[in-house]
Amino acid sequence: MEILKISKWLLLILFLANNLICYSQTNYNTSISGHVVDAKTRASLPFVSVILENTSVGTVTNNKGMYSILTSKTAYKITFSFLGYESESRIITPGKTQVINVELSSTAVELGEVQVKASKKNYSNKNNPSVELIEKVIKHKASNRKESLEYYNYEKYEKIVFALSNISDKFENLRTFSKFHFIFDNVDSSRIDGKDDLPMFIKEKQSSCFFRKNPKAEKEIIHAEKTIDFNEYIDSKGLTSNINYLYQNIDIYNNEIFFMSNKFLSPVAVTAPVLYRFYIQDTALVENVRCIKLFFEPRNPSDFLFHGFLYITDDSTYAIRKIDMSFNKKINIDWIKDVRIIQDFKKIGEKTWLLNKDEIAVDFGVTKTLPGLLGRRIVSYTDYSVNNTIADSVFSGSDKVWDKDTSGKNTYYWDSVRKPPIDNPERNLYAIVDSLKKIPAFRRRVNILVLLSTNYLNLRQFELGPDVSFLSFNPIEGTRLRFGGRTTPLFNKRIYFDAYLAYGTHDRRYKYSFTTTYSIPGTSIYKFPVKSISLSYTYDTKIPGQELLFSGPDNIFYSFKRGVNDKMVYNHTFGLGYMNEFENHFSFKLGYAFTKEAPAGSLYFAGNDSSLLVNQVPFLQISEATLNLRFAPKEEFYQGKLYRTRVPSKYPILNASFTVGSKIIGNDYNYQKLNVGISKRFYLSIIGYTDVSADAGIIFGKVPFPLMFIHNANQSYAYQPYTYNMMNFMEFVSDKYVSLLVDHSFNGFFFNKVPLLKKLKLREVASLKILYGGINDRNNPSIQQGLFKFPSDINNIPLTYTLGSKPYIEGSVGVSNLFRVLRVDIVKRITYLQNPNVTSLGVRALFKLDF
Asked: CA distances (Å), 649 to each of 209, 242, 243, 630, 635, in order?
């Protein structure tokens, strides 16, 4: 998967980017550090805001209450503030190094309620005041949700920061960093758990948001965006989409909360009292608001549930004033060491509580001792306007739009909208990265990492690759040698070329391909939305009906196949296409292709019409015009060097294509093809998610088997989600079909009940694939003259079949997250076991990265 490939080198790229800060920080002349604790309990206080008054300089304390500020700005006072505590200020001396430790006093006032503590063994919902309280919160959810308002709008500032954490001396001294060792000179030792970490990536956004209840509509107008730019190496927009996928907005009032690519049951879901335990801790004043502090935890620690605190207003509204929660470390989520979610609500008007601040901190990593990645998302909501009519024109068009110059905002603009302010290492990171990309040694190392992760070697104006196709083999060509590449936007922003030359040592034939693409708007053809015209000419081999996911047909790893693979075709193909994508993620593609297709290996085109002068047909002429339609609402994706990797979502993808083949335009037959399909992911809360794909097709007209639907089989040992893994190449053809593919991940729902499997963090997967199909009598070569005979072996035993009254069915069960990156399935073929050369049971593997 492209996301997995990115993970191999993106962390290093961004890591190297950071601390050229050491150059820019030579002007710092004021250094302040210290420790912030609770005045009563002496416990360290994390995420305390630390700000130099009358400046935009600030930071927050780490998980051990430590903070550090380096600045060249002049300030005389430093202020410490934290929800539920009295703010404290201290006098500082500009231009000096100083340590300021602070004790914050809680604003909470005990009101004398009885503290309820229940033994886990004796815990019961019956006559339990904690459960009665949460049931009142659930009962009042509808009135406390912001969606209960007729209108509202607000200003939103969002910041996402990633930092390399837990940097050891051993890591610093790795030979990899020998030419960049200076970047460790200014490592910050006070941001997370008192260990070294470096800011590596930052993304900021400021926008205006609008909501209307009836008819329901939402709108976000993005005024400014700012992010680290590595577009020459990675898709920054796609990377941001993946980050947004992991850090989706959390609405505590929803029954289910999507977080880290999984669904968690909310502690205020309708069924929460069944799966959670609740304990009233105390009653307190939180910033002069009387609240009940409620602790909650999962009944089963391995379920996808949260634990933490809810602060509930002690009045008739039973609104949530504050949330401080995480999830249990025992649940089966990989690559994550720690999580903290804090939300603060602000009272707007008489009784409306709306989100004021939202902060999510996630510590990614493999183990506690190895370097990790600390990701923080902070969102501030200000300038609320409630129940004031918003003009209908505001909601017209797309639900998300960008101002014309979102990237052109100056420093003064960003300083005015940042809440809270960013610290200096984050501030300087933008300029540092621009400087770093100009260093030749850095570029050389990055190009090697890009080659390893994307299979292309970046040579500035030209990319050489893909390297996995340089060498492969198959029974027809023998050893296949290939060399090729493509131009980049540095060569020309409008015109792109892609070409390769290949040679087979067995068939002793050269194959080649040349494609040129013209970008109509003048932007990269890999940048959404694409509007382009392409022209291509190719001579190469192909396995009829074979389409692989995230791979080309000559990938070295797919050269290893089970069974017999000696039926291919040589294609001479001329193609012309027009692609048009729209901002709403509807797209269409008009195409024309003329192909002269000749059989190769043991495949033959043998006519059954006695009027034919010869029985063997040397080639088939295919001339087709095609219209492809696609609609993927709210789709986000990572644009890789070869493929787009879609960010999973609950929204469906709709596809349709219509193809016309006609003798008028040079085809040997007259026909029309229609295909329609839909795919969607369904999230099933604590029992995982299901990917469902259904499609159907029909052919109108008389066609031989090469022009029918040759169902997508897989004879490799790699598990392919969208192919039939136990079907042989060209085993089934149809002129009408319906298929259903279902793949479910249980996310460890069952394995978590078994101690050893739970410790290994293994997860259960299962799939089912069903294919119905058949052919009309007019396309049956045993009935109709003028068609090609179905392929058979040397003993005249048929190898290609049509589906009868029963469907083709295969299913699998497997284990994912092996070594954290591998899925292994045992695949069982259930029907048509009587066909020759059939394997009914097999093991297939797939590299896959999940949280």
From this structure: 22, 11, 13, 16, 8
- Residues 781-813 have pLDDT tens digits of 988 888 899 998 888 888 999 998 899 999 999
Q: Is 766 helix (H, G, I), strand (E, B) or coil?
A: strand
Three-state SS string over 370-390 comes to CCEEEEEEEEEEEEEEECCCC
Residue type at position 502: A
**293 or 19, higher pLDDT:** 293
User: Domain map of the chain by residue range?
Assistant: 2-104, 129-436, 455-847
Please state whether the peptide bond connecting residue 706 to the residue before it is cis, i.e. omega within 30 degrees of 0.
no
Q: What does the alpha-carbon distance between residue 844 and residue 730 come to, in Å, rounded to a whole number?
A: 20
Strand, coil or helix: 52: strand
Is 195 or 628 the better-scoring residue by pLDDT? 628
- CB proximity list for 724: less than 8 A, separation 6 or greater: 711, 712, 713, 714, 769, 771, 808, 810
Residue 287 burial by Cβ neighbours in a 10 Å radius (0-12, 13-18, 19+): middle
Residue position matching structure tokens 């292709």: 593
CB atoms within 10 A of CB 290: 14
Pairing state of beta strands 671-683 and 531-542? unpaired
Instruction: Dump pLDDT digits (tens) for 8-54.
Output: 434 444 444 333 333 333 345 788 999 998 888 888 887 777 888 87
Residues 6+ apart with CB under 8 A from 18: 164, 183, 198, 199, 200, 425, 429, 432
Q: What is the pLDDT of residue 20?
A: 34
* pLDDT for 587: 96
End-to-end CA distance of the chain: 14
SS3 (DSSP) at 184: helix
Instruction: Calculate mean pLDDT across residues 193-200.
Output: 60
Q: Which has the higher per-residue pLDDT, 81 or 195? A: 81
Mean pLDDT, residues 609-622 taken together: 71
User: How far is residue 352's CA from residue 381's CA, in Å, rounded to a whole number?
Assistant: 15
Average pLDDT of the chain is 83
Separation CA 829–CA 839 (nearest Å): 8
Classify residue 102 by burial, with Cβ atoms within 10 Å: 0-12, 13-18, 19+: buried
Lowest mean pLDDT among 261-265, 494-498, 669-673, 729-733: 261-265
How far are the Cα atoms of 132, 209, 216, 398 from residue 219, in angstroms, in the given order? 37, 6, 10, 8
pLDDT in the model for residue 581: 94
E strand or H helix at 817, and its extent? strand 808-818
Most confident of 89-103, 170-184, 238-252: 89-103
- Cβ distance 571 to 537 under 8 Å? no
User: Which residues touch 502 (CB under 8 Å, ≥6 apart)?
Assistant: 480, 481, 482, 483, 510, 511, 512, 540, 554
Burial class for 21, CB neighbours closer than 10 Å (0-12, 13-18, 19+): buried
Q: What is the dihedral of CA 412, 414, 418, 421, to 10 degrees?
A: -70
Q: 515 — alpha (psi -120 to 50), left (phi > 0) or beta?
A: beta
Residues whose CB is less than 8 angstroms from the CB of residue 338 and which lie 6 or more positions away in sequence, other chains included? 63, 326, 329, 361, 362, 363
Q: Is the pTM of this model over 0.90?
A: no
DSSP track, 440-462: HHHHHHHHHHHHHHHS-EE-SSE
CA-nearest of 741, 565, 775 to 671 is 775
Q: DSSP letters of 321-386?
A: EEEEEEE-TTSS--SEEEEEEEEEEEEETTTEEEEEEEEEEEEE-SSSSS-EEEEEEEEEEEEEEE
Q: What class, spelled out in words, does domain 455-847 have in CATH?
A: mainly beta
What's the fold here for domain 2-104? Immunoglobulin-like (2.60.40)
pLDDT for 183 equals 56
- Higher confidence at residue 222 or residue 428? 222
Q: Regarding predicted confidence, which is higher, 235 or 254?
A: 254
| Angle at alpha carbon of residue 623, lines to 621 and 625, rounded to 5° | 165
Three-state DSSP at 728 gives coil
